[in-house]
Amino acid sequence: MKPREDIQNIYQTALAVFSEYGFQKTTMEDVAGRLGMTKGNLYLYVKNKKDLYHKTVAHALEAWQSRVLEAVAAQTDVKEKFRIMCFKAVEYLAQDNLLRNLLVRDPEIFPMFSDKDPFADINRNSIALIRSIVVQGIAEGVFRPVDPDRISDVVFMIYKMFIIRMYIRAEDNALHDMFEDTVDLCTRGLFTQ
User: What CATH number is attached to the domain comprising 164?
Assistant: First the structure.
């Protein structure tokens, strides 16, 4: 295999193991065994278990982000871009059982407050996506003239709250309907018409 394919396979396999056992109980031997390699070979790719965990989670979060970016890029209408971004970002975890299980086991991956965010750089990219859509909407006269930075942060905070409540804490299924209502509320307050 090519090194890039190797590392993606390592991250996907590690995600499955971490999702099953959590960080504390997972060993490098567990991951290496699932990969059919020795622990020593696994250390050619990562420094230690913490490094493997961080890189694995980052890879999973970036895959989530890529899925949303692809869905947004397929849209030309800025209102649809905004709606699609909101719904695809939340729906992704309903499909990715491994990442969802890992978030349940380790909610610190996706904290509500950014000062404790171990993946702040990745989340900044998500906020930048929100901002770019808001800026486009304002430029096209479709969104009200708001502060794109503040609105992007607000939308991301709302999004994080729903992710935490819907998937990490697994609260009432009515939250899906509430999320739809929240997106409707945001868009009607953001759009000029």
Answer: 1.10.357.10
Give me the domain span that covers residue 90: 3-190
Among 182, 107, 191, 141, smallest CA distance to 99 is for: 107
Report the chain's terminal Cα–Cα distance, integer Å: 53
How many separate domains does the chain show? 1
* CA distances in angstroms from 86 to 1, 55, 68, 158, 186, listed in the order given: 36, 25, 9, 10, 10
Tens of pLDDT, residues 94-112: 899 999 999 888 888 877 6
173: DSSP letter:
T
- Interatomic CA distance for residues 22 and 149, integer angstroms: 35
Residue 13, both tokens: 């396999």
What are the two backbone dihedrals, phi and then psi, of residue 110, each rounded to the nearest 5 degrees?
Answer: -130, 65
Q: How confident is the model at residue 188 (pLDDT cuts 50, 70, 90)?
A: confident
DSSP assignment of 6-52 equals HHHHHHHHHHHHHHHHHHHH--HHHHHHHHTS-HHHHTTT-SSHHHH
